[in-house]
Amino acid sequence: MTADSEFKRRTVLKAGSTAVTATFVATRTATPAAAAQTESSVDITLRVNGHDHRLAVEPRVTLLDALRERLDLTGTKKGCDRGECGACTVLADGRRIKSCLTLAVMRQNTEITTIEGLARGDRLHPLQEAFIRRDALQCGGCTPGQIMSGVACISEGHTRSADEIREWMSGNLCRCACYPNIVAAIQDAAK
Amino acid sequence: MRNFTYAAPRNVAEAVRLAGQPGARFIAGGTDLLNLMRDGAQSHGAIIDINGLALGDIVQRNGVIRIGALARMSDVAAHPAVRRSLPVVSEALLNSASPQVRNMAAVGGNVLQRTRCGYFRDSGTTCNKKTPGTGCPALEGENRGHAILGGSDHCLAVHPSDLAVALLAVDAVVLTDRRRFPFADLHVVPGTTPDQETVLGHGELITGFEIPVTPLAARSRYLKLRDRATFEFAVVSVAAALAMRGNTVRDVRLTFGGVATKPWRSPEAEDALRGKPLTTTTITEAGRALVRGAVTRDHNAFKVDLVQRALDGLLRDLGGAR
């Protein structure tokens, strides 16, 4: 699938959900609580995949929600939203973190890398290539998190055996249980 | 999660002043706090981000290793001085959480993380820790994960930190913005006030830990038993530090996780070994001394046996007992 068709699919999905929820949105924005929340927003700058983004967020907005809902970087997935599944894994100054467990306001002086920032133009990252070659995904929901975590796992040097990879990838769950192929892909890319 | 105001002070004095206001709370890694706020187990009007404070260093000087409160779990676990002189601390950390969370979570916050008791975390149930006086459903309910030591008729919730169990075994000292005291004094048993978990005052900031470098601490291990191989809290855990003179136990520290309402040290178990040879008999005696005061409930009696076997296995491993 090309980047272009992916964009169209998402636009259709978004348009559909907007139409369905339009009435609810209208009622909710009229409440005093919503107004108060807007006043309490803070201006921040996030550096993501080499670009600075200025935005106003409420302090309670997680890095994950800021990436997905404000910067439209929906490659980072929201699975459990409580640090258990790893689908939201991104790199912060090169270290893997769970973006659902940190606030956007806390990450202003951090270089964030998401799955969208891995490829160099049309050239996929070696681990992305390895995931395709090894068929290391089924539904794909966990895949961006697995790949970001795997990139860090390789750079940390925790790839000396399949057991070591399994232990150091334990923060990323796969409901389709593609674990053997994920481990194989990481082993390939680590070579 | 309810919204809050946010401040990122640049020095300890300012952080402590801001955190002194009612409803304020420090955030470091945030890996526990954000979930507590999502679940409604805690709510705070002001969040004070301390990540800008210079409290992240790990240094060894004059026979003491000082770990700053903002040092991340992964950095402490991998630090050469910690691995060499405090192996139990490194092992406890590497057996905690996931690589991502270990990159985020600070050690000061780790020892203050709150229980994983399902009743505490569930917004739809009563809980004396969450809302004092509402009752404890765990007493007669799902209590397989709950404490057999240090509980009360008000609360049986287990303290979840592996690091705290390890720090207790190496005689750590807690440093705050206003005082220093033994790590053993940090946590308190629930008694009639399970909402009170530590001796820290409102707005008091842990700035670090100091741990003396001793032969005892250098020969230390952590054993964690859990329901799956990794990325899980302890059902039972044991930290042991051992100093031998020939075949005799010169000194020993035995601390436990998963079985108690606070990081648990057993002086009785230690006394059963100190000055004696490490044998099947003395190890068995130590285990019995540990569980002598245990109180079990419907689903957690298995921990009485399990913790003794864990102690047995770890001591044999560490001391080479026959």
From TrEMBL, chain A:
<dbReference type="InterPro" id="IPR036010">
    <property type="entry name" value="2Fe-2S_ferredoxin-like_sf"/>
</dbReference>
<dbReference type="InterPro" id="IPR012675">
    <property type="entry name" value="Beta-grasp_dom_sf"/>
</dbReference>
<dbReference type="InterPro" id="IPR001041">
    <property type="entry name" value="2Fe-2S_ferredoxin-type"/>
</dbReference>
<dbReference type="InterPro" id="IPR006058">
    <property type="entry name" value="2Fe2S_fd_BS"/>
</dbReference>
<dbReference type="InterPro" id="IPR036884">
    <property type="entry name" value="2Fe-2S-bd_dom_sf"/>
</dbReference>
<dbReference type="InterPro" id="IPR052914">
    <property type="entry name" value="Aldehyde_Oxdr_Iron-Sulfur"/>
</dbReference>
<dbReference type="Pfam" id="PF01799">
    <property type="entry name" value="Fer2_2"/>
</dbReference>
<protein>
    <submittedName>
        <fullName>Xanthine dehydrogenase YagT iron-sulfur-binding subunit</fullName>
    </submittedName>
</protein>
<dbReference type="InterPro" id="IPR006311">
    <property type="entry name" value="TAT_signal"/>
</dbReference>
<keyword id="KW-0408">Iron</keyword>
<dbReference type="InterPro" id="IPR002888">
    <property type="entry name" value="2Fe-2S-bd"/>
</dbReference>
<keyword id="KW-0479">Metal-binding</keyword>
<keyword id="KW-0560">Oxidoreductase</keyword>
<feature type="domain" description="2Fe-2S ferredoxin-type">
    <location>
        <begin position="42"/>
        <end position="118"/>
    </location>
</feature>
<dbReference type="Pfam" id="PF00111">
    <property type="entry name" value="Fer2"/>
</dbReference>
TrEMBL record, chain B:
<dbReference type="InterPro" id="IPR016166">
    <property type="entry name" value="FAD-bd_PCMH"/>
</dbReference>
<dbReference type="InterPro" id="IPR036318">
    <property type="entry name" value="FAD-bd_PCMH-like_sf"/>
</dbReference>
<dbReference type="InterPro" id="IPR036683">
    <property type="entry name" value="CO_DH_flav_C_dom_sf"/>
</dbReference>
<dbReference type="Pfam" id="PF03450">
    <property type="entry name" value="CO_deh_flav_C"/>
</dbReference>
<dbReference type="Pfam" id="PF00941">
    <property type="entry name" value="FAD_binding_5"/>
</dbReference>
<dbReference type="InterPro" id="IPR002346">
    <property type="entry name" value="Mopterin_DH_FAD-bd"/>
</dbReference>
<dbReference type="InterPro" id="IPR051312">
    <property type="entry name" value="Diverse_Substr_Oxidored"/>
</dbReference>
<feature type="domain" description="FAD-binding PCMH-type">
    <location>
        <begin position="1"/>
        <end position="216"/>
    </location>
</feature>
<protein>
    <submittedName>
        <fullName>Xanthine dehydrogenase YagS FAD-binding subunit</fullName>
    </submittedName>
</protein>
<dbReference type="InterPro" id="IPR005107">
    <property type="entry name" value="CO_DH_flav_C"/>
</dbReference>
<dbReference type="InterPro" id="IPR016167">
    <property type="entry name" value="FAD-bd_PCMH_sub1"/>
</dbReference>
<dbReference type="InterPro" id="IPR016169">
    <property type="entry name" value="FAD-bd_PCMH_sub2"/>
</dbReference>
<keyword id="KW-0560">Oxidoreductase</keyword>
